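Supplementary Methods. Inverse-folding protocol.

Structures were first reduced to a discrete structure-token string of length 349. This string, shown here, constituted the complete conditioning input.
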């Protein structure tokens, strides 16, 4: 994309929640999920180029607020995101986010956008990317435990990218499962509501856990997990917040985004510091093996990493071309003489 002219730099495109929804409908949600999966995968292949750091987290009794920065040397991004499992009971989202893209050469922002929807899309795309390399060949049956805000995105990405045909649903709150059934009706997926996690995992090729509870939870116990499945654990993403019994990890081959962050936040926080993991980018770029046998249990211990947000932000910036799905935000001071910032203020009096 060509760099904006100096006068245009004063205004940056801002994508509101309303405009993000228009953009997603304009492109089509399954197309967005497929294209985002490819965009995340392309950036995982150039992993070495990126600045990487565990996200900066501010923890409280109720939840966490995090900043997630990265750069590939040409473009910089960060996301502000929270995680507050107790919010739902107050009618608020567990996860909300916004993010920014900037040009490294000038440090000027080039995009500001809502990222609550975009995080759900990129998390689903990352799950699908991992499953593409780790799930059993010809996976058709997905189990979704935790039917909250992320659930439909996860199901549709697995359908669009992997060809999943059946989704078995379980949530401790039956209203969450009813909501997901309603939202996924008409997508072509065969939907099976279940009354226990045990019933939900029957015959599953892929098990996705996306629950929210600020504790060491046990959504899956060891005896529930049979040989050959792929587990996509996305809800354990914070110190003191996990979903799987540690015995499952002892039987699994575990794949992670960025080990220094995942060892703090992921399922593997329960394990010794030298518990072996494989970095997903190495699998994606052919440097490490993904699934190597039919009986292997593969686990993607997903916590969400800044490079996925970078990919999503760049994707949105590209898709905005030729549309009016943004507002111009006057966020950069632009005096005629760059040194005369005070004069600009004076003249505005
Ligand atoms: P949400 O609050 O909307 O939904 C969570 C659902 O889990 C609720 O419906 C709740 O009833 C259900 N649940 C809680 N305990 C359960 C249990 N023991 N068994 C079955 N269901 C249970 O949250 P969300 O936005 O869908 O997010 C889900 C989780 O994913 C959160 O923990 C969030 O932090 C995490 N997340 C991870 C990533 C990532 O990149 N890995 C990205 C976004 C969100």
């Amino acid at each position: 994309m060509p760099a904006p002219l100096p006068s245009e730099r004063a205004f940056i495109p801002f994508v509101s929640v309303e405009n993000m929804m228009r953009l997603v409908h304009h492109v089509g949600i399954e197309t967005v999920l497929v294209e985002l999966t490819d965009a995340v995968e392309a950036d995982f292949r150039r992993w070495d180029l990126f600045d990487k750091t565990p996200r900066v987290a501010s923890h409280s009794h109720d939840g966490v607020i995090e900043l997630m920065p990265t750069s590939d040397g040409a473009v910089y991004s960060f996301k502000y995101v929270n995680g507050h499992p107790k919010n739902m009971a107050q009618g608020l989202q567990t996860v909300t986010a916004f993010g920014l893209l900037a040009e490294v050469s000038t440090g000027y922002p080039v995009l500001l956008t809502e990222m609550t929807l975009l995080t759900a899309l990129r998390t689903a795309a990352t799950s699908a990317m991992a499953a593409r390399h780790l799930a059993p060949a010809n996976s058709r049956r997905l189990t979704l435990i935790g039917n909250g805000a992320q659930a439909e995105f996860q199901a549709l990405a697995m359908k669009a990218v992997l060809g999943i045909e059946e989704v078995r649903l379980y949530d401790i709150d039956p209203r969450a499962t009813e909501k997901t059934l309603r939202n996924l009706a008409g997508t072509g997926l065969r939907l099976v509501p279940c009354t226990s996690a045990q019933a939900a995992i029957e015959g599953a090729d892929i098990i996705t856990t996306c629950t929210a509870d600020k504790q060491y939870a046990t959504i899956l116990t060891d005896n529930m997990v049979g040989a050959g499945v792929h587990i996509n654990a996305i809800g354990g993403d914070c110190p003191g917040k996990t979903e799987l019994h540690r015995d499952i990890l002892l039987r699994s081959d575990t794949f992670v985004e960025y080990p220094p962050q995942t060892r703090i936040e992921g399922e593997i926080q329960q394990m010794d510091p030298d518990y072996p993991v494989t970095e997903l980018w190495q699998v994606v770029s052919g440097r490490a093996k993904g699934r190597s046998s039919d009986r292997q249990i593969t686990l993607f211990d997903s916590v969400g990493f800044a490079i996925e947000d970078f990919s999503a932000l760049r994707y949105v910036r590209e898709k905005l071309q030729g549309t009016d799905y943004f507002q111009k935000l006057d966020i950069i001071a632009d005096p005629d003489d760059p040194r005369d910032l005070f004069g600009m203020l004076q003249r505005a009096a």
